[in-house]
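Appendix C: a fully annotated inverse folding record. The material below is reproduced so that readers can follow the format used throughout the book. The structure is listed first as tokens, followed by the designed sequence.
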């Protein structure tokens, strides 16, 4: 059976449309009040999801930078957040293996007006906490990604 260029292009277009239809985008922001605009996000297990994070603040990055760190269910947020203080050279992501292994994905630390995104596909349903790990922010800047 010979596949014509027209049939090949039609098949590729159909596959691309299917992927685009199943991909999901979630937008979340933070500002100088040290709060995410959403305390809860939702997606489905197995669904490719892009989380787009924007820092809407005006204060300098050195004083009020923000990141979005998605963690595994059950992560000790206090232990993670407290260890993050010493990890400035690593985007405030702790390098200790027991803590680093809890990270599902994270953005870089953003200054005012900056945007970054992460792409994930979570196979397991559950409640995945997210925080900003910039020093001292995790206690106020947190939420949960609910995967059904």
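Designed amino acids, in order:
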């Amino acid at each position: 059976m010979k596949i014509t260029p027209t049939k090949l292009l039609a098949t590729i277009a159909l596959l691309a449309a299917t992927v685009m239809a199943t991909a999901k985008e979630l937008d979340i922001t933070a500002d100088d009040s040290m709060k995410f605009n959403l305390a809860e996000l939702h997606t489905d297990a197995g669904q490719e999801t892009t989380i787009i994070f924007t820092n809407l603040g005006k204060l300098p990055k050195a004083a009020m930078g923000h990141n979005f760190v998605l963690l595994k269910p059950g992560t000790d947020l206090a232990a993670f957040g407290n260890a993050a203080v010493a990890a400035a050279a690593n985007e405030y992501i702790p390098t200790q293996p027991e803590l680093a292994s809890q990270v599902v994905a994270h953005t870089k630390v953003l200054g005012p007006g900056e945007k970054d995104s992460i792409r994930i596909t979570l196979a397991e349903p559950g409640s995945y906490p997210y925080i900003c790990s910039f020093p001292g922010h995790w206690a106020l800047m947190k939420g949960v990604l609910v995967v059904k």
